[in-house]
Amino acid sequence: MADEDYAIETTDAGASATIPMEAGQIKKGGFMMIKGKPCKVLSISVSKTGKHGHAKCNFTAVDIFTGKKLEDMIPSSHGTTVPIVNRSDWEIIDIEGEELTLMDEGGNQKTDLNLPSYPDTMAEEIRSAWNGGENSVIVTVQAAVGIEQVVAWKKEG
């Protein structure tokens, strides 16, 4: 018995990309998942309860990565999911084709991101600032539900 081999497979720590939340607790400007997409809530309208029903929340939101407008209606006492969204600033070290090489303040490098496809003009603005010999171009990377994308940029110095 003691000499049997056991295959131990590694797994992640179980950290979820979303957290559950009651629909009535979501605020304008907050985030929520609609149709599997992480969205920023633009407006919320609440309908009054019927004789036997719940108050319903009608959410209008925009996908944080594509800018596509989405809507959802959920009873206010029912649960929904909220994505965990992180934003961080990175300095561009190199642009090769569509691929970016980035570095953060701690000296860590990131090479798995491309120039953004949304909004349409941002990739060209970043490229022209970089080619224009700016001292440093800083991009803001937004991450949620396993997706990372450049969502903003600015010139430093």
TrEMBL record:
In this chain the Translation initiation factor 5A C-terminal domain maps to: 84-154
- GO MF terms on file? ribosome binding; RNA binding; translation elongation factor activity
Keyword line: Chloroplast, Hypusine, Plastid, Protein biosynthesis
The question of whether Flavoprotein is a record keyword is answered with no
Quick check: keyword Hydrolase in the entry? no
Look up the domain of life of the source: Eukaryota
Q: How is it modified after translation?
A: eIF-5A seems to be the only eukaryotic protein to have a hypusine residue which is a post-translational modification of a lysine by the addition of a butylamino group.
Alphabetical list of Pfam families matching this protein: eIF-5a (PF01287), IF5A-like_N (PF21485)
Main location (coarse class) = plastid
Biological process (GO), any one: positive regulation of translational termination
Identify the InterPro entries for this entry: IF5A-like, IF5A-like_N, IF5A_C, NA-bd_OB-fold, Rib_uL2_dom2, Trans_elong_IF5A_hypusine_site, Translation_prot_SH3-like_sf
Compartmental location: Plastid, Chloroplast
GO cellular component, alphabetical, reads: chloroplast
Q: What does this protein do?
A: Translation factor that promotes translation elongation and termination, particularly upon ribosome stalling at specific amino acid sequence contexts. Binds between the exit (E) and peptidyl (P) site of the ribosome and promotes rescue of stalled ribosome: specifically required for efficient translation of polyproline-containing peptides as well as other motifs that stall the ribosome. Acts as ribosome quality control (RQC) cofactor by joining the RQC complex to facilitate peptidyl transfer during CAT tailing step.
Family per similarity comment = Belongs to the eIF-5A family.
Name of the protein in its database record: Eukaryotic translation initiation factor 5A
Q: What organism is listed for this UniProt entry?
A: Cylindrotheca closterium
